[in-house]
Specification:
Blueprint: E1 5-8, E2 14-17, H1 43-49, H2 55-58, E3 64-68, H3 75-84, E4 92-97, H4 100-106, E5 114-118, E6 132-136, H5 147-155, E7 163-169, E8 175-182, E9 185-193, H6 210-213, H7 221-235, H8 244-257, H9 266-269, E10 273-277
Parallel strand pairs: 3-4, 3-6, 4-5, 6-7
Antiparallel strand pairs: 1-2, 7-8, 8-9, 9-10
Length: 288
Amino acid sequence: MPSLKTAPAASGHTVEYPRGGPGRPGKPVGSITRGTTNPNRLRRMDRWLSGPSAASVKKAADPLVIDLGYGAAPITAVELHHRLAKVRPDVEVIGIEIEPERVRRAKALERPGLSFRQGGFEIPVAGRRPAVVRAFNVLRQYDETEYAAHWDMVRARLAPGGLFIDGTCDEIGRRATWVAIAPEGPVSLSISLRFGAFVRPSDVAERLPKALIHHNFPGEKIHRYLQALDKAWAEAAVLASFGNRQRWLAMCHSMVAAGWPVLDGPSRWRLGEVTVAWAAVEPGYQGL
């Protein structure tokens, strides 16, 4: 087993780097995940990244995007490259997987702007700083005590203005959530639901990112937020005959009126999406 060096992390956790220190060759950081994936599973997050958050790619000096832990099949990296190329034609997507056989199989799909390599949270890109790192359905398979150190490790490698996206979704992408993390720390939580795939907004709770999924109980901010969404959704039931989209729009307007720091607007709400500032949902028991 290689020797490790440790470094303090902003979260208060300790990050363990492979031998040689951060950015040097060594054993990949992370664990092999189940690797399950499906075509179009991450379309909701891709739509957000190529939409309201496209600036992180459009304005990047080096339009490097990492699909970290893409799983047993590389389809999510292929789809991400296709979608982001419409925003930035010279975008470069690198799919990174810790399991060598998954990388070997993906090599057949390489093309200009899309490649695959072995690695983990250390992001083995030879000193380059990614504009975006996406890790979807990866950290949810880790222990709760581990996610913060991995957040710190990845965000320390981002380009200025870059984003690390830690997200979770169901098997076919109908219910999704993700945290956007800047080099300075977490920025926002997004919830994106397919109309007809939920009864209440809080049905997404089982798909919350690892940072929040164990904090959905009274006294925690994320619980209060989901309960507020449910209440606003119930109060908008009078609009149900006009369709779930109109009801969702009314719910979001109510959340804004109630003072929640919602960061997007009707063009995103129409898609079954809503994004709130991280401070409104961050972990930390508040008491009853």
